[in-house]
Amino acid sequence: MNNDTAKITLYQFGNSVCCQKVRITMDHKGLGWDTVEINLFRNEQYAPEYLKLNPKGVVPTIVHSGQVVCESTLICEYLDDTFPTPSLIPADPLARTHMRFWSKLVDEGLHEGVTEISFSAMFRARMQASTPEQREVRFRNIGDPRRRDRFMSSFEHGVRSPFVRHAIAAYERALGHMEHTLAEGGPWLLGDAPSLADVNMMPYVARLAYLGLLDIWTAERPHVRAWWAMVQTWPSFLAGIVQPMSEHEFEEMRAGGARIRSELAEVHAEVRAVIREAELARG
Fold first, then answer.
1. How confident is the model over 126-169, as pLDDT tens digits?
2. Residue ranges of the chain with pLDDT lower than 70?
3. Which of 46, 69, 78, 241 is at a distance of 20 to 30 A from 254, taking alpha carbons?
């Protein structure tokens, strides 16, 4: 274990997909860290002392040797640069570009997607049970008009929100590309060894699986199913995602996914038909 690891502090929320990416990366490298839990449901991410570290009011944040690093994708690359063995970033420039394609795919589509699907499945009912005053505090604290619009729409319309529809489409495109990539190579996204391409995707695929929804996207994608089966045996995945979660959290995800599964499957079928039609039109 690296002597510098005692200087890493991770500010996290345990079941955050972004925090899971960072924990997978740190475990793979044999790093140790101190944890400060930021409870998103209590709005602790908006506490003044935390906003000094992370002005966006999101998790995760790490502090390493007194230096603050925010944004999970950047944190993972920083950790690989700082602790290069075993590496999760390819040495070849073209392979690094391919790795970052998956980072962009997550950051520019899947992250909002998993947020909207998770909100519809698990947190919408919780918000509906709160008082109007409590909901207003929650929405006001978001601070980002775009995020507020997304959450308000998902709160009001559930799976029928256009933002959930966008989420379903983002997953459809991502897992379609994943199937094609794995069919041409594999067993990992960049070939024989895991990389940050895989680490980026793991929490987002896992969330669908734990919601009981993954098969809606993977029924006709055997290579994605094989990748997911392999991921579930990888020690750093187990340490970064599975082991830190409680049975209550798993049960909450299963129950939430079951609540929206039928309606989400209907919307998925509609979205997939539109995407297929566009693909056929392009030849």
1. 777 777 777 676 666 666 778 778 888 988 899 999 999 999 99
2. 1-6, 135, 137-143, 283
3. 46
Q: Three-class SS of residue 162? A: helix
As a whole number of angstroms, the distance between CA 48 and CA 157 comes to 32
CA distance 156 to 148: 12
Residue type at 84 in one-letter notation: P
Look up the CATH architecture of domain 93-282. Answer: Up-down Bundle (1.20)
pLDDT of residue 1: 44
Helix residue ranges, H only, 45-161:
48-53, 72-82, 93-105, 111-118, 124-128, 132-142, 145-157
At 63-87, the pLDDT tens digits run 999 999 999 999 999 999 999 999 9
Q: What is the CATH number of domain 3-82?
A: 3.40.30.10
Domain pair 3-82 / 93-282, same fold: no
| CB neighbour burial string for 192-202, b if at least 16 within 10 angstroms, e if fewer | eebbbbbbbbb
Residue 258 CA neighbour count, 13 Å, CB half: 6
Joined tokens for residue 171: 């997953």
Residues 112 and 79 sit within 8 Å (Cβ to Cβ): no
> What's the per-residue H, E or C state across 178-232?
HHHHHHHCCCECCECCCCHHHHHHHHHHHHHHHCCCHHHHHCCCHHHHHHHHHHC
Whether residue 28 contacts residue 236, with contact meaning beta carbons closer than 8 Å, is answered with yes
pTM for the full predicted model: 0.93
Where exactly are the structural domains of the chain?
3-82, 93-282
Query: What is the number of other CB atoms lying within 10 angstroms of the CB of residue 278?
Result: 9
